[in-house]
Design a protein that fits this description.
By secondary structure, this protein is mainly alpha-helical. It has helices spanning 5-11, 17-30, 34-40, 45-56, 63-68, 73-78, 81-87, 111-121, 133-144, 196-201, 217-220, 223-226, 253-259, 268-275, 279-291, 301-315, 353-362, 366-378, 384-398, 401-414, 419-436, and strands at 89-95, 100-105, 125-130, 237-240, 295-298. It contains 21 helices and five strands. Helix 7 (81-87) crosses helix 21 (419-436) and helix 17 packs antiparallel against helix 18. 35% of the residues are buried.
């Protein structure tokens, strides 16, 4: 077995012990590969790439050569840019006779990713050389996006490859564009029993919705003004009125957490006991949500008034019968046009869907909850964003590669020009292949 990269470079006199220690510390902080960390600290990339190529039994392409490499426009049309971005793969040459595609890849040891590239492009095999990740991303921008300055202004390795937003080690997704950042099943975050409703309603988080979020400061300032409503009075029961459309609104993580318990039947007092929060604090949150049309809170006054009215009518003495009216003279009754009765308002099933999902989740019927949620999303005017988000949730929390693939595929089919949806689809296909073929994987450095 080849020695570790750092030990080999140290043995060859390429790096000093001090530089190696700094690179290892940077690797711990950023999660980048050791070779990339060494290059970022000023080490020449050639010896690093040479050792990697030797271990992976392939060749390497330096940044300087990659910057000058010509790429045929027909090849760029053959290899979708979403595929290239999703796998950090830059095609270089296609041998039609041998049905072989040559290119550079940041991690050419990812066999399942290579198989997916070959299947998508329609070639018998893919022969990847190794190159630095940031150099590959620069090549993609140069050739696919006609960015002539791509190699002069290379994006950092720890930035989102799609939108350039800052990322951190262990991030599951980009909080800005919702791109899946995980490249290996082992890098998926630990599972958490977070409500699907909560994860769907909350703003995307880089690591997913975990733990109990802290109430935002603006909610705390509302408590004193709403405290008088707590004492006395009938139980207040909140209900979600916005339907699935509220997932497109800006909700704080704390609001999404609270809404994940709202089923239209549980009172605020009971919700306070369930969530271990102060009732006055919950009332302040619901006041804010009601103002934005997301929830309503009923207290049963209407029902009590109707019951009281019915009881009063029973106690009242019967009215004296009215004298009979004289018989009308016979006459031809005018013909009147029939007026159809007013149509009854049909309740939108989407208005109650989140509450039904909450009830299913609380009873442990998760599969039914997900199916109901997926069906509700399909009825929206713009379902693609929520298909993508639900796919991320099921991958993150349940490791459901099959259903996540299906949801990413739906989002990509609805918006084929959205590169995030397509990249997420390619990434989950690779993750699924790695997870189901664990015995064939090559150990990462």
């Amino acid at each position: 077995m080849a020695r570790k990269l750092g030990e080999q470079l140290l043995s060859d006199g390429v790096v000093t012990q001090e530089m190696l220690a700094r690179a290892l510390e940077r690797q711990k902080e950023t999660g980048q590969k050791l070779g990339e960390c060494l290059v970022r600290l000023g080490l020449d990339e050639t010896p690093v790439l040479r050792l990697l190529a030797q271990e992976l039994k392939t060749r390497f392409v330096s940044t300087a050569k990659l910057a000058q490499a010509p790429v045929d426009s027909a090849l760029l049309e053959r290899v979708p840019v979403r595929l290239a971005e999703g796998f950090d793969f830059m095609p270089l040459r296609l041998d039609e006779a041998a049905q072989s595609l040559y290119g550079v890849m940041a991690e050419p040891q990812r066999e399942r990713a290579i198989e997916e590239i070959a299947r998508t492009v329609g070639v018998a095999r893919v022969l990847p050389f190794v190159a630095l990740r940031r150099s590959i991303r620069a090549a993609i921008r140069k050739h696919y996006y006609s960015d002539s300055q791509a190699f002069e202004h290379m994006v950092d390795d720890d930035a989102c490859p799609h939108c350039g937003a800052p990322t951190a080690p262990g991030d599951f997704q980009c909080a800005r564009c919702e791109l899946l950042l995980v490249r290996s099943p082992e890098d998926l975050p630990p599972r958490d029993n977070v409500s699907v409703v909560r994860a769907l309603l909350a703003a995307p988080d880089r690591t997913g919705s975990r733990g109990v979020p802290s109430p935002p400061q603006q909610e705390k300032t509302r408590i004193s003004s709403y405290a008088q409503a707590v004492a006395g009075g009938p139980p207040a029961v909140p209900a979600i009125t916005g339907g699935l459309d509220i997932a497109q609104k800006t909700l704080t993580p704390f609001e999404a957490y609270i809404l994940s318990f709202v089923d239209g039947r549980t009172s605020v007092a009971d919700l306070a006991r369930i969530t271990a929060l102060a009732e006055v604090e919950l009332r302040a949150v619901f006041e804010s949500l009601c103002e934005r049309g997301i929830t309503r809170v009923s207290n049963g006054e209407e029902k009590r008034a109707a019951v009281a009215k019915a009881a009063e009518s029973k106690r009242a003495p019967p009215a004296a019968p009215a004298p009979p009216a004289p018989a009308p003279a016979p006459a031809q009754a005018p013909v009147r046009e029939k007026v159809p009765p007013p149509e009854a308002k049909v309740a939108d099933p989407a208005d109650d869907i989140l509450q039904r999902v909450v009830r299913l989740e609380r009873s442990g019927r998760i599969e039914e909850a997900v199916e109901l949620l997926e069906g509700g999303i399909s009825r929206l005017s713009n379902p693609a964003p929520l298909y993508n988000r639900l796919g991320m949730i099921l991958l993150n929390q349940r490791r459901d590669y099959t259903r996540s693939t299906k949801l990413f595929q739906k989002a990509a089919d609805l918006e084929p020009d959205n590169s995030v949806y397509m990249m997420n689809l390619y990434s989950v296909l690779s993750l699924k292949a790695d997870a189901t073929n664990a015995g064939k994987k090559v150990k990462k450095r």
